[in-house]
């Protein structure tokens, strides 16, 4: 049964790289096998409920540009939105979706009504997930939009706000668990500060640590086998957010004894805002053992804010999926399109076209990354660069040689000469694969 929103568009098919059909995949063939797994299994694409179905097309200087028949704050509107959502998931062949509680339910007057509304839509989702085969990659709670969270949720100076947020997270974990969700995400959009004049960072760090420990304890209590994920972001909407980047979040997890319990959902656009490349954040998370899932989008490099555009840069995607493949994949995680249309893209089919282009871009990047790994194009020169640590003085240093003994070795005739890092040659290698 169709909603009529997308007209007579039929499910998107793979037509190959020579296709000029804008409603077809040119590079994403879900059943194509790469490194022993299908692209569908590697990429684990998910559609973000919020940007695709909730965002009205506004910006700081203008209001709504999108006309959507499900806009409204009743359960009937929420059900109509779900109808269109699952039709879109099916047309795209997207195996997963993601949501915040506030994306899928109308806002109630209190906690009890919020919970009732959430449960009503979760009940509505169940048959649709079974009918379409679409699964839940992750659920999360919106702890940033309502005015009660203007000073944070877990880090709020008011313990009653902390309590309300914690209870909300419980209901969202319950909903995620009921729907067979494979992860649960926490994004601290307002866990930070605007000014230090009214902020006690030490106290707020302790509150955030307590909050996350409660979440992890509850996960184990109810037998939720999914991964708990934190999504780093340095700013927006607060001046400084505590989950700044991968390194900052890892330090937080270590402080609170959670480094073996929680992994990260890393967004390309947030990495850029933190002054890093996407592959840097992925590489560091992989090295620290906390790479869990990704939000795939891009920022406009001429803008210093989070523009959440669909990805279209294949070399960037190749380097990103190179790190993911070296990680052995994303486990329970996946590739969530935390991407939104431009406010002038007002036609229903634009929602499909944005995702089609992003999925093709990711598929091209992953296939390029796989080819580089298979050929040892980057691994062979990398191994050669560090070869000195695999024998001789390199192994002696790692085995525990003291400073005096090492100095004696140098005095005995060590006189190292610089060796080229060959950056340009390596960049040319990447370009040959994309």
TrEMBL record:
Query: What is the native source organism of this protein?
Result: Algicella marina
- Reactions the enzyme catalyzes: alpha-D-xylose = alpha-D-xylulofuranose
A GO BP entry is: D-xylose metabolic process
State the similarity comment: Belongs to the xylose isomerase family.
Quaternary assembly = Homotetramer.
- Positions that bind Mg(2+) 2: 267, 270, 306, 308
Q: Which GO terms describe its molecular function?
A: magnesium ion binding; xylose isomerase activity
Keywords of the record: Carbohydrate metabolism, Cytoplasm, Isomerase, Magnesium, Metal-binding, Xylose metabolism
- Return the cofactor note field: Binds 2 magnesium ions per subunit.
**Among its keywords, does the record have Transmembrane helix?**
no
Write down the EC number.
5.3.1.5
Q: What is this protein called?
A: Xylose isomerase
Give the lineage: Bacteria, Pseudomonadati, Pseudomonadota, Alphaproteobacteria, Rhodobacterales
């Amino acid at each position: 049964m169709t909603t009529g929103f997308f007209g007579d568009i039929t499910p998107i098919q793979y037509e190959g790289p020579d296709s000029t059909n804008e409603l077809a995949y040119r590079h994403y063939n879900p059943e194509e096998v790469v490194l022993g797994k299908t692209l569908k299994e590697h990429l684990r694409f998910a559609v973000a409920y919020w940007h695709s179905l909730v965002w009205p097309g506004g910006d700081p200087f203008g209001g709504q540009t999108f006309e959507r028949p499900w806009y409204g704050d009743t359960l009937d509107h929420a059900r109509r939105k779900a109808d269109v959502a699952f039709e879109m998931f099916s047309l795209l062949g997207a195996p997963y979706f993601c949501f915040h509680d506030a994306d899928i339910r109308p806002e109630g007057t209190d906690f009890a009504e919020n919970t009732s509304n959430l449960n009503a839509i979760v009940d509505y989702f169940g048959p649709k997930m079974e009918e379409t085969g679409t699964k839940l990659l992750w659920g999360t709670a919106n702890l940033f939009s309502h005015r009660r969270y203007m000073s944070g949720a877990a880090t709020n100076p008011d313990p009653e706000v902390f309590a309300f947020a914690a209870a909300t997270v419980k209901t969202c974990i319950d909903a995620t668990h009921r729907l067979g969700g494979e992860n649960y995400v926490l994004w601290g959009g307002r866990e930070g500060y605007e000014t230090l004049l009214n902020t006690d960072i030490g106290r707020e760090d302790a509150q955030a640590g307590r909050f996350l420990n409660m979440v992890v304890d509850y996960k184990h209590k109810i037998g939720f086998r999914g991964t708990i994920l934190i999504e780093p972001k340095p700013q927006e909407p607060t001046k400084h957010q505590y989950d700044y980047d991968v390194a900052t979040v890892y330090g937080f997890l270590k402080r609170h004894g959670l480094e073996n319990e929680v992994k990260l959902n890393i967004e390309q656009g947030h990495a850029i805002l933190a002054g890093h490349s996407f592959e840097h954040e992925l590489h560091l998370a992989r090295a620290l053992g906390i790479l869990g899932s990704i939000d795939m989008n891009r920022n406009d490099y001429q803008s210093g804010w989070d523009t959440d555009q669909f990805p279209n840069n294949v070399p960037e995607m190749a380097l990103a999926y190179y790190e993911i493949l070296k990680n052995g994949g994303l486990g329970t995680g996946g590739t969530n399109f935390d991407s939104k249309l431009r406010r002038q893209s007002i036609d229903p089919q634009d929602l499909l076209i944005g995702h089609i282009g992003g999925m093709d871009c990711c598929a091209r990047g992953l296939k390029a990354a796989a080819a580089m790994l298979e050929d040892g194009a980057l691994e062979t020169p990398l191994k050669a660069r560090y070869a000195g640590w695999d024998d001789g003085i390199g192994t002696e240093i790692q085995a525990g040689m003291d400073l005096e003994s090492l100095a004696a070795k140098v005095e005995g005739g060590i006189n190292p000469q610089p060796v080229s890092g060959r950056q340009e040659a390596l960049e040319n290698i990447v370009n040959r694969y994309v």
